[in-house]
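User: Before I run my own analysis I want an independent prediction to cross-check against. Here's the chain; please return only the structure tokens and, at the end, one sentence I can use as a sanity check.
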Amino acid sequence: MQAIVEAMAEGDVEAVARLRLAAFFEGTGRTLEEDITALRGLIAGDGFEAAFVARLGGSPIGSCLFVRNENDPAHDLTPWLAGLVDNKFYRGRGVGAALLRAVEAHAASVGVSRLYLYTWQARRFYETLGWTAVEAFKQDGEPMVLMARELASYSVPAR
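Assistant: Structure tokens:
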């Protein structure tokens, strides 16, 4: 069965917030309610920013965001691909790539020509999907890389 990627809906918010807490915010003090509130604000926004969810059998198994501002950025850049997460049981099945492509397509549709992200562990994943490392640096003592993707000539890949 193939995952379906579409805009995040209210019914996805809690499940996605739980995925995000486990992946990004464990030990940070961020609560489930804080992430739920942030996701609700994003999906109720002005249409420029966006949240996408991957579903399998109707259940959320991954998510990715398109945002103006990254949390605690080390660079004064905008906009960002942020929070790409998928359920570890579905890795290697194209879920992350499908979410990434949904964000890129949305960004291009709202007139964005260059998109940014931060990663370290997933650098090779992003490079294989057309992203370029711009700068390696340390953030809070941890290695990090700023990556970018030019969208000026972006087209949605054929399925």
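Sanity check: DSSP finds four helices and seven strands in the chain.
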